[in-house]
Amino acid sequence: MGEPLLRALNRMRDHLLDPDALVKAVASGRQKGSRPTWRRAELRYVDLKAGRHLQVTTYDETQAHTANHALAPSDGQSAARDAVDTLLDEPFANWHVDTTTQTHQLRVTKKLEAVVHTTDRAEPVEVERGHDRDKSRLLPEDDPVFVALGISDESGRLKPSRQAKYRQVEEFLRLLDSSVTDALDKGHLRRPTVEEPLRIADLGCGNAYLTFAAERFLSGVRGLPVRLTGVDVKEQSREHNATIAERLGVGARQGVSFVVGTIGAVELDPAPEVVLALHACDTATDEALAQAVSWGAQLVLAAPCCHHDIAAQLRRSPTPSPYAMITRHGILRERLADTLTDALRASLMRQQGYRVDVVQFVESQHTPRNTMLRAVRAGAPVKGGSVRKEYDDLVDTWGISPALARLLDAH
Ligand SMILES: C[S@@+](CC[C@H](N)C(=O)[O-])C[C@H]1O[C@@H](n2cnc3c(N)ncnc32)[C@H](O)[C@@H]1O
Question: Which domains occur in the chain, in start order?
Answer without folding.
Answer: 3-133 (no CATH), 162-410 (3.40.50.150)
